[in-house]
Amino acid sequence: MPQLTPTRAWERMLEGNARFVSGDPAHPDQDVAKREELTGGQNPFALVFGCADSRVAAEIIFDQGLGDLFVVRTAGHVIDPGVLGSIEFGVELLNIPLIIVLGHDSCGAIGATLATTKSGDMPGGFIRDIVERVMPSAIAARSKAGGAEVGSEEVVSEHVMQSAKLLADRSRIISNAIDSGKLAIVGATYKLHDGEARVEGVVGNL
User: Fold this and answer.
1) CB–CB of 113/155 below 8 Å?
2) Could you tell me which residue, 91 or 1, shows the higher pLDDT?
3) CB 168 within 8 A of CB 202
4) Phi, psi (5° rounding) for residue 42?
């Protein structure tokens, strides 16, 4: 199967999301023949870096199947070395042309971060690590609002784009692929009530 361009990969994702939103999913690439075909290797056409929230399963909301998507998920789609290595694997070794950074409303990681900004009390355990990684996005969103208090929607949007830019800033493999035109990163947000993925911005060219 020939590799898609970033533009066509995104169009294919939008087509799948439209099927999901309308309640008429095709459930592609989920039969026995596809399962057996994939024992010889994988050729995913897009990489989704999203939140671990159980309500935002990439293969379902974009109506894709086995072997279609390379998916990396953490709470609040926070970035650490393991995330960067996983995404670099997809870009460098699998030649994936599109990364989608996917945030969503009612995100627990965003909510915990906003609660911390109000109370000043950091959560315990490694949940603190998640909040610390989301905090720059909350600060940036508040700065763009002129210092006014911001809600979760503004922070979700900001965090998606901050994460997309951070991938390109931190990884030479990712930035080189973007500069060559082989890769684009789409920042998108997902609405739980209607199932639609909406574009917040793009790093690179579609």
Assistant:
1) yes
2) 91
3) no
4) -125, 150
169 is in an annotated binding site: no
Q: The domain 6-203 is classified under which CATH number: 1.10.1840.10, 3.90.209.20, 3.40.1050.10, 2.60.40.420?
A: 3.40.1050.10
pTM of the model: 0.96
For 146-155, the CB contacts below 8 A with 24+ separation are 151/114, 152/105, 152/106, 152/107, 152/110, 152/111, 152/114, 153/105, 155/110, 155/113, 155/114
Q: Is 159 annotated as a binding residue?
A: no
Q: pLDDT tens digit string along 124-141?
A: 999 999 999 999 999 999
Could you give the 3-state DSSP secondary structure of residue 147? coil
Q: What is the pLDDT of residues 4-38, one digit of tens each?
A: 999 999 999 999 999 999 999 999 999 999 999 99
104 among annotated binding-site residues = yes
CA 162 → CA 19, 185, 193, 200, 202, distances in Å?
A: 29, 12, 24, 11, 11
pLDDT reported for residue 141: 95
